[in-house]
């Protein structure tokens, strides 16, 4: 059976395409031409429609005084009341600032880390070494923050912690890192690297694997050393991946992972360690104030959207493919 | 998916026939994928319901066919039960095991149980209520839930039902009037059923009697004497941190000064938060002193799970332990150091007088009636049967199998069997009459010397709790909406200020000033006025 | 000789990576040691890298009553079928969205992005799941997370990065999108397929919240929920019920629980690793 798929723009095919275009116009034409593409989209789009869009009416809770038994539609409309409460709350601005700052630190430190690691791993020739190291690097990702937090605290203990022992050898007084408002964000950022960098290398390794090995051979023949090769081949080769992951990361800027912060924070450093998610946990969710929690979620989503759009534009200007 | 032809020569146009074959192959593959999907769907549909009929899945309180054939239709009610993952698979599930069957056979009522994960009960109950699937009986330890459910209109008052249908529970309530205020909400109606908790004793301070003896010291009777003892302990041996803590540390110290954090007090008819009484400043000063003099661990702020504290205590590096009546670390210490002798501190004196130790609220598990409860009489019948003695096997097991009687008190004979077959049954005792009296504790402890020692300690704690008066001006958290709205935010603040203050040179006065400014910035003044109003309207109810 | 010289020169690299690996493997070694140590030693803080007072009591205790095995079976099933479902839904969609000529591409993409940023409320989701009669079935775990927007975007970006010449030469013969997808794109995308499958598999393996809300029958619970429940210290209801030492959770229980959850993934990953090895593909469009 012949496929009447007027794909490419060459020769006979193209002419047939024009004929088809002349016959059926508009949407139907495209539906026919790309019918498999649309078919491919069916499961995913149905999913998004059903589970994400239909349930969006739940966001309305943010504008109502939600009562469980009255449901979303029956509860009373209060407009922006919850947003007012949120923005008027003295702690909210501090919490917002902390969220942004901690995310910025993470961006600066924890975003490049997996890239660096992936590139370094790529340079390892001993395949058994490379594979073993990779297998070990991602391990902390699977361990919950409850445990990791406890380990970090004991590592940094002023009395029994390894770090302070090492500092002691260098003649430095013990530092109580975890209760120090200056050190805590540093510990936080480094802990993000520790937990996630190894896992993050997976995607970059996949991207590096897609680079044409011929390019490396050509470069070697031209006399390029390791560093030149990395700079001119490896990094540009994964530019696209870096760009897309950066854009996606922007969507999360308003959201610092609850588990991580909750398990690392303590009352002495609330002023720098309290973020939106922990704040909402205490005030919104614990009291089942779903309306407030939803309002916060909306707020985070809107800011996230704006950031994604901005960075996406910037990334495309730099020549990379953005989200679309 | 290995297509060598395309792989190696993508630029060479494939021959027509080959293409046709490939297209057919593609279609075949697509079809086979679809078949796979279909098969998966069928398999799943069969597997996940376990072949059960829809009516058997635990959804809502509809009456299902009675499980016993030949039994005249027994009334059916549904109830929530905490799922703690303790039912062994050969015992069954939380919905169906020896105890659910026992209840169905003996109580005159059939109960369908709906497991609720213990650690996520708030959300689970909320979604059940929101989707109108909540069970007839909803049980929780948290009184705030009862209040909220009542406000939401999810539960109904039950005074009339008790009046009309109940016998045993009605009598029980009459015998224990102290329960009533805790089951009643602001509108004066009773919204929950509960029985007394096994003991009202909760916090306690333990001390190493053997250390006191070695240093020839007397048991401290006042806070100042305790500090002296602590200092002596610190110098007694190397590496000692005299006072080990748990979550009970801050409350206990607060309680010495009758100023427990977060509580409201009434002084000269005016309500005031504990923080703003003059006594609170002294409590904070004490904690600061303890920190500065090295009487407590310097790293307690980051010790979230209190693992360092437990380490200190069980390895014998601490002499004083602020804990709860149930703390398992006591047993751990005695196992590690059998020669250790423990004692319980009596209430300590401060310049403000002597306060007893905190008493827990008298009620235990609270059970509310769903507003859609179809058969209240059946529910009451179940409760009556429970309180009448139906609860006993679920606590102790069966005589001969799990325990034997000594002086009328059941002593577990086969621990393994008890743990496997009876332990989880405790959950089903919505109401019961187990009380920890000294005799009960001593005899149930059996032969083991460690258990005996701990039973003695518990006895002392319970006796203390019944002897000494504990100052509590207002029996429970004022159910004032404006207060609830800022309470948790303020909690974060006072925790922070307390911790920071104890670790630095901030004076108590400065700390109180910080507390006040935090309180005011949250709108605290208006809230205090509201609480005052509530207090004036209600204070006669509980005197 | 050249290889030896090369190896000597790259020892700083190897050392650095070794240190990183040591830093990351340390927590797991620590936890493994704790799961095999005595309670006493753990509380006393004596356990670092090696078990102290070796015993397997924690594992015995967790596996004793058979519940955990049922839960593990559930988790394996959930993960395997779920990953298949997720990939079937995601991969073709990513392919489609990667094609610039698709009309409505921007709209669909924005739809996906929007859903990523604005999460679903618990109550509407619960009502939906209930209305679809998915409560107490595994579909309640698979469907609400069927396509991860993040994974979709990453995969889409990968497909966009494939050289267009590949497809052009095949379409000259009249190959349809279907053929292209199955015969050309998929075989070349092993690395990204492996990566995203892994992401989905791990997420499914660790599924907790959806199971908690939508599944109440204990025999259907996955391992995460089961373990969390088993680790709850049952203080409330069991005050004074006889020997209090019965209710002491051996400290190693938590550690053993973690090992049980993590071990299977650690076992599987090395097999997927070979797909990330360099040089698996595209080098075939030459000259």
Describe the structure.
- With 324 residues, chain A is mostly helical.
- Chain A has 18 helices and two strands.
- Helix content of chain A is 68%, strand content 1%.
- In chain A, α6 (90-110) packs across α11 and α7 (112-122) packs across α11 (184-209).
- In chain B, the strands form six sheets. Chain B has a four-stranded mixed sheet. Chain B has a three-stranded antiparallel sheet with strand order 3-13-4, with helices on one face.
- Chain B has 22 helices and 15 strands.
- By secondary structure, chain C is mainly α.
- Chain C is globular.
- Classes of the chains: A mainly alpha (324), B alpha+beta (543), C mainly alpha (287).
- Chains B and C meet through α1, α2, β2, α4 and α13 of B and α3, α5, α7, α10 and α11 of C.
Class per helix and strand makeup of chain B: alpha+beta
Instruction: Give a count of the beta strands of chain B, DSSP E runs of length 2 or more.
Output: 15
Please summarize the sheet with the most strands of chain A.
Answer: 2 strands, antiparallel
CATH second-level architecture of the largest domain in chain A: Orthogonal Bundle
CATH architecture of the largest domain in chain B: 3-Layer(aba) Sandwich
Relative helix content of chain A: 55-70%
For the record, give the distance between the C-alpha atoms at the N and C termini of chain B, rounded to a whole number: 82 Å
Summarize the amount of helix of chain B as a percent range: 40-55%
- What Rg of chain B, in angstroms, do the CA atoms define? 30 Å
